[in-house]
Amino acid sequence: MTAMIELSGVAKAFGPKHVLRDVNISVERGQSLVIIGGSGTGKSVMLKCVLGLIQPDAGDIRIDGEKLTNRKRDDFLSRFGMLFQGGALFDSLSVWENVAFRFRHGAHALPRDEARARAIEKLRRVGLSPDVADQFPAELSGGMQKRVGLARAIAHDPEIIFFDEPTTGLDPIMAGVINELIRELVTEMGATAMTITHDMTSVRAIADRVAMIHEGKVRWDGLVGDLDTSGDPFVDQFIHGRAEGPIAAIR
Predict the structure, then answer these.
(1) Do both 106 and 70 map to the same domain?
(2) 145-158 in b/e burial notation, b at 16+ Cβ within 10 A?
(3) Which of the listed residues 112, 137, 157 is the one where a domain comes to its end?
(4) What's this model's pTM, rounded to 2 decimal places?
């Protein structure tokens, strides 16, 4: 079975700093993979390589079996949705215009009324009522902004969804709500998901599989149910938040 996302021998350096070192990861179609690891370990750079925002120095990245470098960028972009860490909503656009951004721009832009109707449908799907549609991001709470970002990520029913620290800045209750929504939506849509997070509650709620990156290398990759018995001291220290261990010793 062809993996939806596959990284083979991916490496990236910025000057003398080697950020990714021979990264090998695959995500099956419809699977949810969560990437964990400390700050500065290469998680975000890896995601940017998959998105085509950064060109790796070595290795291959394939989307549905095809090399990323061989794809037409517009075709690739049309297949994925993205929930950004800070929401990344456009302050000058209303909520519905944020959700419908892809519908309103480009060669196949929809009429305003149709785009608004689709946006409201997606807002409902993430638990927001239609009266939110004409408000602006600054008028919403952090949790509501995150839901709007999620509605935008799923607006065009993407095959692949990327989540960058989806619960950052949220209180534990709202974080739990967002985690449940993500799990529901990914399952319902049959989408392939790749998530970066430090939040172990999110990991256990969202993941089918987990990969840990440390110093640019994949330390461990396995089913979320095997996380607590990984046998890897780096993974064990990270998931339990222990000050003492191999990660602290290296710093």
Answers:
(1) no
(2) bbbbbbbbbbbeeb
(3) 157
(4) 0.89
- The CA distance from 36 to 238, in Å, is 9
Is 137 within 8 Å of 91 (Cβ atoms)?
yes
Please, are residues 36 and 212 in contact by the beta-carbon 8 Å criterion? yes
Sheet holding 17-27, edge to edge: 17-27, 5-14, 58-63, 66-67
If asked whether residues 70 and 172 sit together in one domain, one would say yes
Which residue segment(s) compose the domain that 102 sits in?
Answer: 86-157
Nearest to 29 by CA among 202, 208, 179, 154: 208
Q: What is the pLDDT of residues 60-117, one digit of tens each?
A: 999 888 887 655 566 777 788 999 877 789 999 999 999 999 888 766 788 999 999 9
CATH number at residue 246: 3.40.50.300
